[in-house]
Design a protein that fits this description.
disordered N terminus, alpha+beta, seven-stranded mixed β-sheet, 535 residues
Length: 535
């Protein structure tokens, strides 16, 4: 399952506060095979619950409420011991043949599905032990599902929340094209409200495989095959560099050395804002205080004896407005926290730490990736007691936002870009503060803003170009406010239709020579393509 996403705009952090009070509805989910090799008779569906069993006690309410006709998915139990606490719960449901689901009229979701994952496997049901279904392990001995092609759709659904939504997760690997359309009707008829995903046709999938071959040189540790020589999946670069700052490569994808070298001793401004409150959902019957947080940090890339380093310094400005019962503003306070420092500093043997951080994007406290300074200490004290709409402490959100801003920016290729867009006149994109990148309309990123391969996340670029940014290619694909991977499952949505294309192993593998030619022709054609607006 993908990592938690942190959005770029002020509105995004308040999304989860907008729960409706109406009675819970239901979402109907239908599937159709558009390929030629697989049909409902050899395609399987299984579901993973969204609760993390390693950190949370068993809670039956966290098991997604999903049925097909009169049938309930059968959940497998696991036993997990954390310290002296042994937890027994449910993680995966047994795989069900798509033919049986279709005969029962599709899936029906009722409630309590936070970050549930729907797995679609081709030709075989999935093993559903606690340790399977990683989809990314480059080892058949580690992952019992290694030789099974499968893909995923993620859903967060409560049935009464205006922000119920889902997405197609392709951050870690690509196996098969999936497209999701949502409808107001309960039976997926009429005009779709929105559509996200890939073109599920075989030629479109073959074109993607061609592009992956071109940028990786056909690396066998990235383009994985089963014992019959059939391609099962393409691994993303996060599976090679994340947590391995001295890795030899990133599965054939760029290690950013050329990009970072071109940026040495240049600076980029990273700035964004978000909003918080002293109560999770402000109302008219309580007094509360709102806090608007803006961080502005200037990052410099430098070359050290151990590899490239990032040093971002700046300030966080917090504006608090107090409201009396009834919503009347009664006070205003501004606090400026200066000398906030975020750094990525490679140690001996960590020459690829900056690249691993750029790909992976998570802030993990440690010796060589730090967020601190007097300003950070001041900010955490000043913002204590404030939460976002999901009741998450404000300091934790900003702690993730700052490194996320850098990771997304360098991965998308914005720093150093000399390209311009009409929205910002003659100012090069690389000279804009990062917050402006996420509000470009239409959006541009990756090969749209850099002409040199290796100056952006090549894996994410292929996902971005082929899905119009409606599928996750990097952790922060949802940072763009005018084109997003989300598809709504709000109460106004009655159904989803999920179109399944044939997986990679059903597509003839291109030769590298042909792949290279088609790659450059294909990306030239992608430039300027109209992008879908965010739902």
């Amino acid at each position: 399952m993908k990592k938690i996403k942190w959005l770029g705009g002020l509105f995004a952090l308040a999304l989860f506060a907008a729960a409706q009070t109406a009675a819970a509805s239901q979402l109907n989910m239908f599937f159709t095979n558009t390929g030629t090799e697989y049909s409902a008779t050899n395609t399987w569906i299984t579901i993973q619950r969204g609760q993390n069993p390693a950190s949370s006690p068993t809670n039956s309410a966290n098991i997604p409420g999903v049925t097909y006709g009169a049938n309930q998915f059968v959940w497998n139990t696991y036993t997990n011991t954390v310290g002296t606490n042994t937890q027994v719960g449910n993680l995966f449901a047994n795989s069900v043949l798509l033919q049986d689901i279709n005969a029962a009229g599709g899936l029906t979701w009722t409630s309590n599905a936070p970050s549930a994952v729907v797995y679609i496997s081709y030709g075989s049901p999935l093993p559903v032990s606690q340790y399977s279904l990683s989809g990314i392990s480059p080892s058949a001995t580690v992952d019992p599902s290694y030789h099974i092609p499968y893909t995923t759709v993620e859903l967060t659904y409560y049935g009464n929340n205006a922000n119920d939504q889902g997405d197609i997760t392709a951050i870690n690997y690509f196996t098969a094209p999936v497209r999701v359309s949502n409808y107001a009707s309960s039976n997926a008829t009429g005009t779709p409200l929105a559509t996200v995903g890939f073109n599920p046709s075989a030629p479109a999938t073959a074109a993607m495989l061609t592009q992956f071959q071109a940028v990786t040189g056909g690396a066998t540790n990235t383009i994985l095959s089963n014992t019959n020589g059939q391609i099962t999946r393409v691994l993303g670069p996060t599976q090679f560099g994340a947590g391995q700052p001295n890795a030899a490569d990133f599965g054939g994808f760029t290690n950013f050395s050329g990009y970072f070298g071109s940026l040495s001793n240049t600076t980029t401004v990273f700035s964004n804002q978000s909003g918080y409150n002293t109560v999770q959902t402000p109302g008219t019957n309580v007094a509360y205080t709102n806090a608007n947080v803006v961080f502005v940090l200037t990052n410099q890339v430098s070359s050290t004896t151990n590899g490239y380093a990032f040093t971002a310094t700046g300030q966080i400005t917090t504006t608090k407005i107090g409201y009396a019962v009834g919503g009347t503003p009664i006070s205003t306070n501004v606090n400026v926290s200066s000398n906030v420092v975020f750094s990525v500093t490679p140690g001996p043997g960590e020459s690829l730490l900056a690249a691993a951080f750029t790909y992976y994007g998570d802030y993990s406290p440690g010796t060589n990736i730090t967020l601190g300074g007097a300003g950070w200490a001041n900010f955490t004290t000043n913002i204590a007691g404030f939460v976002d709409g999901g009741n998450n402490p404000a300091a934790n959100i900003v702690r993730a936002q700052i490194p996320g801003e850098l990771s997304a920016g360098y991965s998308a290729g914005f720093p150093g870009s000399t390209n311009t867009v009409a929205q910002f006149g003659s100012t090069p994109l690389g000279e804009l503060p990062s917050g402006d990148w996420w509000n470009l309309n239409p959006i541009v990123a990756f090969s749209d803003v850099q002409s040199t391969n290796g100056f952006f996340n090549e894996y994410a670029n292929i996902i971005y170009q082929n899905s119009t940014n409606s599928v996750y290619g990097m952790t922060y694909s949802d940072r763009f406010n005018n084109g997003s991977p989300y598809v709504s499952a709000a109460p106004s949505v009655g159904s989803w239709l999920i179109e399944l294309g044939d997986p990679l192993h059903a597509i003839p593998e291109p030769t590298f020579a042909v792949a290279t030619i088609v790659f450059f022709i294909g990306f030239a054609a992608y430039k300027g393509r109209v992008r879908r607006k965010k739902i």
